[in-house]
Design brief:
Blueprint lengths: L7 E16 L4 E17 L3 E5 L6 H8 L7 E6 L2 E2 L5 H7 L3 E4 L13 H11 L5 H14 L16 H13 L5 E5 L7 H18 L2 E6 L2 H7 L2 E6 L2 E7 H6 L4 H8 L6 H6 L30 H5 L5 E4 L2 E3 L5
Parallel strand pairs: 3-8, 3-9, 6-7, 7-8
Antiparallel strand pairs: 1-2, 1-4, 4-5, 9-10, 10-12, 11-12
Length: about 325
């Protein structure tokens, strides 16, 4: 997607993830949930790509499929020149040292029966990258890096707040010195007062360790703060992808325009003057998505062609990609 190959760390090509639906005693497949249905984008080394969209649009599934936590139905995930989809289990296990994930729920993603030291050390033990004293030194260092007292290492997750638990999850993700991290809505379960602290920590760590992020969220203002480029997703398909400033200044896709018009503005005068785009109807079911453009059933400018053929994801301006017949 218009970048020199040596700058691209991750390339996702026509990625699909369909979950089969089985019914009856014989467990026959009667359909599939089209959670991710032909997603393509690049992530450059050292950048943060924001992935936004409403709940249930396939953002988290995209992140998990990239990491091969789900086996893709189709498409390619090329990380550092290697197609992860085609890797065998043992090869993928070795590659996992370079790609990690920060999970959405800091309460569910930490084992309540393990101490903080065991949680952060587990990746190092599983991948045999350190032993004994090295592990303890590395755990203390990682806790210090995420602004937690290393003396807390012997405590259990229930003794920490949500923000502190998420920091433990971040320390665990850093344990194997990865180059790419999928941040799956890492702040959505936290108090607003803590969210900014965690986002600032992620930015500091990115500079310190030269990390590359795929930052999944539905908070558009936070995505604008942390991301260099933003991809907008709807019902398993990317509708628009552009540089952050270009996207927020001049959104081209009707869905992006509707999303951004719902973001609160702290200036009451400007807020009163702007035009709200209100979408009618509900999001269609991913089990039986609309023909042609996925957004056409709610789109204010949909035409006959929108039902007949799926729009190409094309570059309409340098670095600005849109999937819409009307643009």
């Amino acid at each position: 997607m218009t970048a020199q190959n040596n700058d691209v760390l991750l390339r996702v090509e026509n990625l699909k993830m369909h979950f089969p639906i089985f019914r009856g005693v014989l467990r026959r497949q009667v359909g599939a949930v089209h959670a991710v249905d032909g997603v393509s984008f690049d992530v450059m080394r050292g950048e943060t790509l924001g992935l936004v969209g409403e709940s249930g649009c396939g953002k988290s599934t995209t992140g998990r499929t990239i990491l091969q936590l789900y086996k893709a139905t189709g498409g390619n995930v090329i990380f550092d020149g290697v197609d992860l989809v085609s890797l065998k289990a043992e090869e993928m296990r070795k590659t996992r040292r370079k790609i990690q994930m920060i999970f959405q729920d800091p309460y569910a993603s930490l084992n309540p029966r393990m101490t903080v030291a065991d949680i952060v050390a587990e990746p190092m033990v599983v991948h045999s990258v350190a032993t004994g004293k090295e592990i303890k030194e590395r755990v203390d260092y990682l806790l210090d890096v995420v602004n937690l007292n290393p003396a807390f290492a012997s405590r259990y997750p229930h003794e920490f707040s949500g923000g502190q638990r998420q920091r433990i999850g971040i320390a665990r993700a850093l344990a194997l010195q990865p180059s790419f991290i999928v941040c799956d809505e890492p702040i959505s379960a936290l108090d607003v007062s803590i969210q900014a602290q965690v986002v600032n920590l992620l930015e500091d760590l990115q500079k310190q360790f030269n990390l590359t992020y795929l930052f999944i969220a539905h908070d558009l203002s936070m995505v604008r703060h942390i991301s260099k480029r933003v991809a907008v997703m709807y019902l398993g398909v990317i509708m628009e992808l552009a540089n952050r400033d270009d996207l927020y200044r001049e959104p081209l896709h009707p869905y992006t325009q509707a999303l951004l018009s719902a973001v609160p503005i702290p200036d009451p005068v400007a807020d009163a003057q702007r035009k709200r785009v209100l979408l009618e109807g509900d999001v269609p079911s991913p089990v039986n998505p609309p023909s042609g453009c996925r957004f056409r059933t709610r789109c204010p400018i949909a035409d006959k062609i929108c039902a007949e053929s799926r729009p190409d994801f094309r570059e309409v301006k340098p670095g600005h990609f849109v999937a819409c017949h009307m643009v």
